[in-house]
């Protein structure tokens, strides 16, 4: 296999950190190369070097046998390196077809864009990916999974010789993942080199040929993936020894919570919104982790949003500790003691330009202030407490949140809600897109919080996480509760069966 | 999406489509309604003469608002256009002694340069457009005052010259500037919808990160829109000077705000990424009709025009926000 792209002894330094330290990696034609590592290991930096967002401080990037220096993303793209990102980076208001062809629209007479041809091409292209949508419709009218496929179709259709995929499946349903993998295999067959970045180990083993493990900016292992078992891979990523990983398991949840007893602290009744939710009802008891299961689009996140009043409902009531909320609104929910850690931390959670301190105390501001004046001393105490407790890795409380890794950003968000002293904590995909180490820490934390008597609602598309983390799972399908698993029924096989619901076997 | 698991958001609902429709054609509907009511209420409103009047009075703002639409779609704002408009007029009047071509080229060159400087500063230094073009507003106004010695020098356009005809001549009743405005709108529409640059404009305004990750030349596009905005403001200023036969220093104060109002009333999102030229044209005409009607009432102080326009602006922005929300809920 001949190399198409290589990094040779590349280093990249940012103020205060050496993000990549003498890293070499080779991408061969026709291989799917897994790039793994904890957040902060240098994966994003490596990707950005390959795609022309950053330039290396030392070392060389070689492409098709020649040293190259990409000064901007356009250069890398023109050379044949395409990237699809974790968060869909497309234009929601523009048409599906425009999103596919922006910057390289088919042109007819006088150099004007030939819309008819563009629509026809777009429809033909997407049908290869098993997507049948109105290509004239704005992208935002599509589900997240379909949007991700559009991003992929765009990346691949530019005659790419190298395709970099950064967490491409984080918002896909199992069915869509299968389609994605089919496309990936096709590409590999055509001699395209694929760099595949994912935290989902199952997927790596399904699709990848070789693996490179990064840790703290250095390559700690590179070689065929099949020769490396899961445990060994995890221990390489974490830098911990295999026996220790085995002892703790892959997730950090304890067996179950005995504290769960007594009256439900959260009662949800008949939440209904046309096309989205139909009569969702369930109870959550203190000291218990209640899972919300279901496929993407089944109404999990919508349920959580409706409970905290972020999604208007036509009908339904929420009762917290025996008191019914008269009106569902975020402010009322916070007052009643419900906190939601939202799914999309970029858009709905962190405020990147503010510091760690400001992000943490944001929601607690009314409590930490007297007649509108914020007590700095009290703030410091709270921030210090939670930074220690959640082990938030930041240079100081004044560091900008945008400079932290994904896992630490998630912890900052968690701290924001915890310092409100909630009775009920809703967690929507709390470990999505964060590295294995931070994931374990967050899981441990969820566990501890439940032990301490907090009522936790956990939403996760990671079945393993849901099954190990939750004491009880409420299964949703098409916006309605279809099943409730408790006790011994909380297992992956039962959950799969319940999620598939209408007798259709999960793929 | 698998058909066995219909996701609630897979197809746009009827409300969503209606919302999109209103957002796109709301200004046109209000314009037609307003014109119909005014025609019924004031016999003098619907006359051919009055129509010519509204058209010519709106044509200058229309040309300025066209450039503003481009800037706003790209996610920016251009506060300098009022001053640039006035500067363009004075430069055109000054150069009109040498003939038609200099009278157009001098203001276009200078105003284009101001626009380009705005664009480079916004695109390269990443300073907020608000600040950069505010500086442009002050700078152009200062330059104007310096040229005219605080407004004490007035440059006149030679009577009967080709340049004067450009501003004052008519074809089937409508002044030449009306046709010029329509021509630039036609051209602008073509650029916006049918060229890569035009489409990239929407991308840059929609999400600058996404646009640059898609490999679009973000900086070049931004510089282009500010350049265009400067050129169009200069052109409008020159045409206005030709019509008035002189370069008037005090013109164009607050014109940038009228232009922004027209663009927003026309359904272009102030945050960028969406908008139409036909909407802007309707917005401009709507402002023109409001002004005209208030003049017709006569007894009403003409300052109330701003009050009514302002009220319209609020209604539109509230409607936009509301409609935007219906479209986005998932």
From TrEMBL, chain A:
Principal cellular location given in the protein's record: membrane
Domain ABC transporter: from-to ranges: 5-241, 245-503
Keywords annotated in UniProt: ATP-binding, Cell membrane, Membrane, Nucleotide-binding, Repeat, Translocase, Transport
Single GO MF annotation: ATP hydrolysis activity
Gene Ontology CC: one annotated term: plasma membrane
Record membrane topology: Peripheral membrane protein
Claim: Cell division is one of the keywords in the record: no
Keyword Glycosyltransferase: no
Annotated compartments: Cell membrane
Name of the featured protein: Sugar ABC transporter ATP-binding protein
TrEMBL record, chain B:
Listed Pfam families: BPD_transp_2
Compartments it resides in: Cell membrane
UniProt topology in membrane: Multi-pass membrane protein
Database matches in CDD domains: TM_PBP1_transp_AraH_like
InterPro entries in the cross-refs: ABC_transp_permease (IPR001851)
GO CC, alphabetical: plasma membrane
Segments traversing the membrane: 27-48, 60-93, 99-122, 129-149, 169-192, 223-242, 277-294, 306-324
Keyword Transmembrane helix: yes
A molecular function (GO) term: transmembrane transporter activity
Keywords on record: Cell membrane, Membrane, Transmembrane, Transmembrane helix
The name this protein goes by in its record: Sugar ABC transporter permease
